[in-house]
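Researcher: Let's try something more involved. This one mixes different molecule types, so please make sure each is placed in the same coordinate frame as the others.
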Amino acid sequence: MEDYDVRSAASILASVKEQEARFEQLTRALEEERRNVTLQLERANLPPNNPPTSQPLAWQQVVMQEQSPSNVTSLGMMQEPQEVVEETVTIEEDPGTPTSHVSVVTSDDGTTRRTETKDAAATLKVTKVVKTITRRTFHQPAAPSSASVSPRSRPASRSATPTATSLDGEPVTKMVKTVTTRTVRQVPLGPDGLPLPEGSSPLGSYTDSIDRRYVKNGGCGGGGGGFITPQATSTLTRSYNNSYGDSYGDATPDAPPYGRHYGLHDGYPELADGYGSLSRGLTYRPPRYPYMANSYRPENSYTLPIRKDDYGHVAQPQVPMGSSVLELNRSQPERFQPEPYGLEDDRRSLGPEEEEPYELEPDYSTANRRTLQGPSRGRTHREPLRDGPRVRGYPDEQVEAELIDERHPYIHGMYSAPLAQPERGSMASLDRMGGRRSPSIDSIRKDPRWRDPDLPEVIAMLGHPIDPVKSNAAAYLQHLCYENDKIKKDVRQLKGIPVLVGLLDHPKAEVHRKACGALRNISYGKDNDNKVAIKNCDGIPALVRLLRKTNDMEVRELITGTLWNLSSYEPLKMVIINHGLQTMTNEVIIPHSGWEHEPNEDSKPRDAEWTTVFKNTSGCLRNVSSDGAEARRRLRECEGLVDALLHALQSAVGKKDMDNKSVENCVCIMRNLSYHVHKEVPGAEKFQDPSGLQAPGSAGPQRKKKDDAGCFGGKKAKGRKNGENDKNYDTLDLPKRTEPTKGFELLYQPEVVRLYLSLLTESQNYNTLEAAAGALQNLSAGQWTWSNYIRATVRKEKGLPILVELLRSDSDKVVRAVAIALRNLSIDRRNKDLIGSYAMRDLVTNLPSGQQRPAKNLEEDTVVAILNTIHEIVTDSSENARSLIQAQAIEKLVAINRTSQSSRETKAASHVLQTVWSYKELRNALTKDGWNKSHFQPAVTVTPKITKNGKPGYDDTTLPLMEKNQDGYSTIDQRDKECKYKTSDGSADLTEREPLKNDTNRKHFIRSNRPAVSLVDACDVKPQPVDSWV
Amino acid sequence: MNHNDTLNHSPGQPLTAVVERIEIKKLHQGDNLIMGFSIGGGIDQDPAQNPFSQDKCDKGIYVTRITAKGPAELAGLMMGDKILQVNGWDMTMVTHDRARKRLTKKKEDVVRLLVTRKSLEDAVKKSMGPYQK
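Model: All components are placed in one shared frame. Result:
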């Protein structure tokens, strides 16, 4: 494939033409073959009265053993069956494996019932898998076949509706229970309970032709022609649960009494359908399936769930697998069924696992998915698309996730194999092929006549006149590109990206969906050239257009996922804002946030829905929100965006559901939009606080006399604090509002403080914590009226102890954000006093002790932030400087000043030391401790500039962060936490201790303050255990 | 109960201890000499928060963490060990910082510790049968 680049357009064209010609030929040939096979099968089906009779026996036998009361249940949720596909699978395995009988009834509505029976005497040998599929709707001779295979299931499939209904009442839980007991192995029983001789299947003779040409194509749906499996020992009856309910009719309740069925979860037919015929062809299609040809219909071809195929693999691993999609297309283009992708249970089962690792990269990551896939990642998982959004286990999938959990207790161990053994087997065999990326390797194992197309051919097929060819080519590209940077690059260089982008506007859902899927995979990864290529052919507006146009959730997930990927590259951010901001807000953020522009008084406020689409979109906006002032302005002014985000967050707090990725994204956007809000918001100048500019943070002791708890209402806002006066500016009122606050104004209303504090209290997600602290930090920066309010509000809402507590976080970035927030908050004089008294020890604890390894290995930035915060706190407050000394900080500061490798740390420490030394009243105490002036001198030649004054707005705010998941906490920190002395009661003290006993100087302040915010009193609390590395 | 157990020992009281001598060669790491463990405790620390001490009044110096494969671990020091002496200096009645300084003298490449730990005491008691101090 390396030589693609050099291939001329002409040769590509030529090969395309050639392909097309061949394709047509094939199609014809296949049709013919199909007919032949059908006939054969029919013929074969009729006589085999043997199998029917014998089979039931064996089956019955086994089934009875495992009868489970619950198998009836799964159908409870299903709707009326309209169309029933019954599939009977006999699985034969190598001797020695435990046996089980599985019967699955598939009904198109999306219900799946599988009855599986374990056979204790599992030693029988089985070698074949036989599947029979019957579609009632099609009225074909198939029916008999199903009957012949398993009499039990036949009635079910025939009279699906009644049965289903009867089952309706059954509780789902039962079904779940059965699930857990299910065996993994398939049954190796002969028709009569005897071991089956290998190759006994009558099908053997023609399987080859079938699978290659026909079955692969998704002929699975093939009508019923039951073909005969004498050894239909284990019968899989599944009804597929199509959660989308799109094409399928109903549940097929059959064979209720015996075996267990895995009802809802098992086979999601959509899997089968949506997934490109590609995957089916490549991965799943067991080459030898004897699917009946006679009733072959396009629709049918896609109904077979993957799992079925998996059985096939198990049974016949030796058969070369994997025909490519393209091949499929060539042969059966008209079979293409444009159904949305469905859920796939085994993929979804990854959900729980995946939840934790948040995306490790800014991109919508396909990567993390992969890590979880373990054994199963073969081709199956190459298409991140499909498993991507679904797997995440976000609330929208909760139900399924639960089901999965119950059903597959073992699933956590082995990721994707609900049918453990057989699937594992099949997966394993897939794995063997998993290494292939090159489209053409497949063909080696196959009939040489059918080679897979190479990349230029695939790309050329994107322009094929027949739509299914296009869509399959796109799906195939998506598949090839999965985690393969080389192929992505090749696709780009072969100019495949503009073609894919062009397909986004294709009217057929299947085509634009697959194209979008391919683009999503291509856009993922570090290679920004791919992203640029998408942008250069106007891919972004095309995606946005499609987002407006489509209602298909899956497509929306793909679009937003692609946009998320694109948004991780700086130069594209503004493009995305220009084209997609309002659309994403209107189409996704607002509707999913639950916010309503004009709330209906009667209706309850809606909660946010943490859908994948919402997550993707918020992730995209999060990325673009970090693109500087203009980007922030655009987002702030985007109608409804801030309102919706705020609503979503409030809903998250209300539901105590604050650890998920969507919340994280929302908080990060809010944090970013709060950055420099005091400078950038229209009309900000009206609120500038002139007095603040003179002496920010050092404005004398403005102790409040009034009750802190007083609300903001009432007085006219003056927004002014008088430097050294004891004026009480806490009671300043907000400017009068003539109309309800909306839009960006919401960003800095004191009401948001409570929201952020709730997040800080409740969330376990470090990124969310950091962002919430960062938001407070941003809002409390600057000198304008609103930041005064914010600072006071944090105190009144008892936010200071919450922040101080977080200084002990294991996460470096949380500590840093909190430290800076405290620094900004201490611009407020009363906050400064409180923080000085109660936060000092925690701040000091975070400092490294000189040459020694610090308790936590905090980054330089964090150490500097803490030092700056300490500096701010001790500036203009000898009381706080005294607290600093009492916290035994001098030694650490001196050590940092003298020995730190970091000049920034040195400088910051030196500033603090100079400030401390400047308090003459403290020198006595310092000398007593053995310090002298030299310790407080800058060690390095630092300009002893203490920039105390006139720093307009302590804008040391966090720069909006890209979503970079540097996790900040190192494992050693975690260990530390466990090994360290337990501060069992330390934290509890935070809110309850009556501050202070003996420090007379501070008494008045405490008294006036009345522990509205009682931080820990340093004197009263047990000393924070010290732990020194040596 | 007799509080003369090493691990329950109150400073100033006579003491019978089952001790182990441990010699740690410091490792040069950049400009620093490290031993790869951390200490907690000291008379200026809250003894109640020491998870390793037998009774929560012990203000001794304890080994709180050990770096895997570090010099201390190689020398046989274990988490939870109580350090009785450092190069002959008493560690049962010192401030945390004093202990730290004793351990981190730059000119000393080797530190000799006298430590005790519960398992040592137990082993001795066991081998000696009923054992009364």
